[in-house]
Amino acid sequence: DVCSSDLGPSLVEFADRLDSQRSAWWTILLGGLAMHVLGLVDDRRPVGPWTKLSLQLAFASIVVVVGDLRLVTVLDLYGPIGTATSAVVTVVWIVMICNAINFLDNMDGLAGGVAAVAAAIFLAATIINGQWFTAAAFALLCGGLLGFLVHNVPPARIFLGDGGALLVGGLIATLTVRT
To answer: What are phi and psi of 5, to 5 degrees?
Structure first.
């Protein structure tokens, strides 16, 4: 078997899981891209707060519905009302985390540092739980943030801006739902 090695399990064992989760992962990536573009537009010319919030809610709703991501799946026991409630809670969670990271982006290194610590902690949790795809995503996010922080500590040479903060917040929010 080409994919197997002495270092760990065969990648073939994960192929079915990867196929079943492909649409959720594409949704997460495209939702993050949409948040990033919204932030970039806002960085160039200010978008009104209500317009920005409306677009964030729309993007988060699409990610939740198309990607079938829900934070509180135990509510599924209560039928469609429970599923809808779980979806609404998840949308609110995604928008809150996006804006929390965005609001933290007011001092050099603060948003990137907090996000890197959060990503590292969730990386450890996903490794302990054996959630290898989510762990890989957290590892990539943490590594990217650490590389960014090298240039973002005072005196900062690069900045997240709304484009970066909304992307990082969106990824942390959706990946924590996956955890």
So the answer is: -150, 170
